Amino acid sequence: MKVNLKIGDLKPKLPIIQGGMGVGVSLSSLASAVANCGGIGVISGAQIGFREKDFAKNPLEANKRALTEEIRKAKEMAPNGIIGLNLMVAMENYDEFVKIAVKEKIDLIISGAGLPLDLPALVKGSNVKIVPIVSSLRAAKLIMRRWMKRDSRLPDAIVVEGPLAGGHLGFSKEELVNKTSQSLTEIVIELVDHLKEEELDIPVIGAGGIYDVKDIKEVIDAGASGVQIATRFVATYECDASDGFKQAYIQSKEEDIKIMMSPVGLPGRALENEFLKSVETGAKVKIDKCYNCISKCNPAETPFCITKALVDSVEGRTEEGLVFVGAKAYMLDKMVSVKELMKEFEQAFE
What we know:
The chain is α/β, with parallel strands linked by helices. It has helices spanning 28-36, 59-77, 94-103, 119-123, 137-151, 173-178, 184-197, 213-221, 231-234, 243-250, 274-280, 306-314, 338-346; strands at 16-18, 40-44, 82-88, 108-112, 129-134, 158-161, 167-168, 204-207, 226-229, 257-261, 267-271. The protein is built from 13 helices and eleven strands.
């Protein structure tokens, strides 16, 4: 299967993007390893400075410093690779993080958890590629229309994230629980057909629930130019999360994976644990400190602090925190290297 993914002047050897996973799951170690294997490695900018000493006192400065360092480290470790940054639109200080990424000459910015309507203006004058994440043709049309009207710019690629993804999802909780939303391949086909009708040459990247070669082929056959995969990269030696976090994925069962409501206001897919059971019963987790992570979050009303929940889990306290996973995380059964994993995926294109 011959597939050539081109995002502007970026041409990865393999049409595989490693999905950005926060907090601290995909940083410079994982991103550089993927980039060195011919894919596109992606750092997650979500609360990236959580390991900095002054994070609790000054999260903004800690995040800005860590973002600069992680981009520099990734580019140093993968000097010939392609490094991207995933930024959630819902983040506080989104604009500032985009500007840092531009200054550090990141190759591309992938942005979801909201509509990145201001992204073109923020990267203007740079060579940074911009890639929105959508879960419907409607959202893609809205973004393209707004970008053209305001900035005479179209996306360099579009990531279509289906209902089987991990983390924050662009569907209603009812659609996800009742499995009534469109499938990934259905949305990909709709978007690819629309772009052809409009004579727009924009690559479509399929994401969400892509586990193996069969899944990759299915998405490519639907018309996608590449795939974005996240969950599989958690169970790799190079993943930046703790071993405890990785083991939670490996030891999970299908029935452990639940749909929950995140303080971000979006449904998410996560592993059921003591923390999630408590939250789902309506218990409010005491919030001692606000890290100013989400623009619409009110500490007085939110059921729990998502920053603390994600930091706890990535550091290995997986029963006390929130463990976001893709729908097929239960299929993982062992640790592998990024090189082994990329070799497996490569078979889809041979």
